[in-house]
Amino acid sequence: MTTRFVSIRFASILKPVVFFLILMPGIVLVWQVYLAANGQSNSLGADPGKSVVQFNGDWALRSLLLTLAVTPLRQMTGWAELARIRRMLGLFAFFYATLHFIAYLALMLEFRFDDLGAEIVQRPYMLVGFLALCCLVPLALTSNQWMIRRLKQRWRRLHQWVYVIAVLQIAHVLWLTRSDYTEPLLYSAVLAVLMGYRVLKYSQRQAATRRS
Fold first, then answer.
1. Is residue 125 part of a domain?
2. What is the C-alpha to C-alpha distance for residues 165 and 160, in angstroms, rounded to an integer?
3. Are the C-beta atoms of 164 and 66 separated by less than 8 Å?
4. In a domain, 16, yes or no
5. Of 96, 89, 28, 25, whose CA–CA distance to 60 is shortest?
6. Largest Cα–Cα distance in the chain?
7. What share of the chain is helix, strand, coil (3-state, %, to 5)?
8. Has this prediction a pTM greater than 0.90?
9. Is the pLDDT of residue 2 over 80?
């Protein structure tokens, strides 16, 4: 009884706790930008604009990988309450990806939209990143109960695009990297494990179906 009570209590605070933890990097970034704007010591380095762009891009990818990690963790632990945070994590991936794009447009291109078009056409990593953001838009817009009820089975098929988006984001990061590939390769390994788990579970379900 006590264990069940603790589990229910923890489940009730899971969503706000995760929300705060995933939002915290953004809050820290705003503080660092404030320090930089006022000429105070900060962690943004010699090129604050580039740091802001990269920071938001990193957290867009991390949030997406966390989203993909929810289902394996739920299945392995049997803790169904984890499903409550999956949609929220996906929306944070869109949130940070949008900030990444806006920061690039504002701080690197200074809202020169002609240059943006040229960048997307001429630089493959820009095209891949832009495609990932565009694919995230319909997923974010349909991440609510009303759209789930309206789309029914089509909702599930639409949200399977998250796997394509994850691959596009990894490709974007790898293409951008010039020297130290440690972090991009780590992200790639995490995605490979998460996708490998899904392929394994799918194969097991298919085998069970054939036996029955």
1. yes
2. 9
3. no
4. no
5. 96
6. 69
7. 85, 0, 15
8. yes
9. no
